[in-house]
Amino acid sequence: MKLRKFIDPLPIMETKKPEKRSRRNSYYEVEMKEFTQKLHRDLPPTRLWGYDGQFPGPTFEVTQGETAHVKWMNQLPERHILPVDTSIHNLASQPIVRTVTHLHGSVTKPESDGYPEAWFTKDFKQTGPLFTRKVYEYPNNQRATALWYHDHAMGITRLNVYAGLVGAYIIRDKKESNMDLPSGEYEIPLLLLDRSFHSNGSLKYPTQPEDASSELPNPSIVPAYLGETILVNGKIWPYKEIEPRKYRFRVINASNTRTYQLYFDNNHPILQIGSDGGLLRKPIELRSLTLEPAERADIIIDFSQLKGKNLHLKNDLGDGAAPEDETHDVMQFRVNKRQNGKDTSKIPNSLSTIKSLKGNQVKAIRKLKLIGSEDEFGRPLLLLDNKKWHDPITEKPRLNTTEIWEFMNVTNFTHPIHLHLVQYQVLDRQPFDLAKYNEDGSMVYTGPAIPPLPNERGWKDTIAAPSGQLTRVIAKFSPYTGDYVWHCHILEHEDYDMMRPFKVIKADED
Ligand code: C2O
Ligand code: CU
Ligand code: CU
After folding, report:
1. Tens of pLDDT, residues 162-204
2. To bridge 395 with a disulfide, which of 189, 287, 338, 502 should be the other Cys (CB 3.0-4.6 Å)?
3. Nearest protein CA to atom 1 of ligand 1, as residue
4. CA 437–ligand 2 middle distance (angstroms)
5. Which string of b and e fits 278-308 if b means at least 16 CB within 10 Å?
6. With left for phi above 0 and alpha for psi between -120 and 50, is residue 90 left, alpha or beta?
């Protein structure tokens, strides 16, 4: 089934309304529900799961210093809409439909962080071993930035997210609001997702790896998944009518496995002003913007010279990708609206100050291998430092100390590595001889350490760790102690088994 492109207008998610709000506190209730929604003019409605019955969920808008209390409620049916592999993580002994919401990129206490084993079922009837509270608390004491919320339940995150459990969350602060960046209708979140469909409109997701042998459990987890269509804010290949002026886009890659290399068909510049954790020091002009799963970019596009033109946001799939691959296209911009008043927005040359963590005393350097192996069925089993989720906790940074984490990727592909609780800084990447490593296990560098790309020189919570390279990040573990996780954000990897716990411990604890 071939769907025509640029048929539906780009939806803008609703802003989430609090039940109560005072100056320092707000209270929200969100219901996860099953519903159907039209994702394309020519596609029958799709059965989905979504926060407040929407896909993507409503966008939170909070101010720095406002504590947001959110009751995430599971009102989902007992059956999953997708085939669930219960052969992993002991899932056969647990309820199938389990959820727990994580606010990605937030600095939050462990009880509110959406620990994968803090899941709950409908009406909190059953709860996971680490469940402690129904109402989550987000202090929002961090920089203004775009976060996103998504499901994080153990061993089933890829399916819960694919079913639709995603949404955007924007933190504002005074400094940024005083800056005259494009705002209001000129500031637009763009949530990028890829999905495949059956002709009846239902979501398509494989039940087996492509080269499945009959020995495999059925259904069986797949090691990666790329959807056949690209959705922005829940519509397949949408278009947006705009004015000839500057716009600000908050781009979030909410896809399971897919990386985007975004560019415009006319090579129009993309001005990146912010990364995962907020504004960069200065704007960076790009012709192509790479976003791994879970990465965000705050970008400005100046359409003022493009009156009457149509622009296409494209996705460079790299050499070797078939030119007819439909996922080269993302969306269309039509610069056909009358300009409503003068564009008074400004992009300052100096956006923010970011103090380098390099000057901090480093308490530990952890070398962590990203490595492939096989499970008892011969399926790929990807691991962090050769350990499974259930192995004892090995990463225990002390509160308020700074550490360097080095991701040594000995697999054949890039893994986007995410840490909860912290925003870190990227130090560098150094290439090593992977063939030699595979031969005899030795680490031989083949070149000098390369500094991060200009647009990676801000606060990050997810970073590409490419194959055959040592990617180094530096983080200060504060302000909370307790149980968190770090993982590859390719959701098919996170579920099996590229996720590990880490625990921030007190200064005098072992
Ligand atoms: Cu989007 Cu554990 O994260
Ligand atoms: Cu996260
Ligand atoms: Cu991975």
Report:
1. 999 999 999 999 999 999 999 999 999 999 999 999 999 999 9
2. 502
3. 104
4. 31
5. bbbeebbebeebbbbbbbbbbbbbbbeebee
6. left
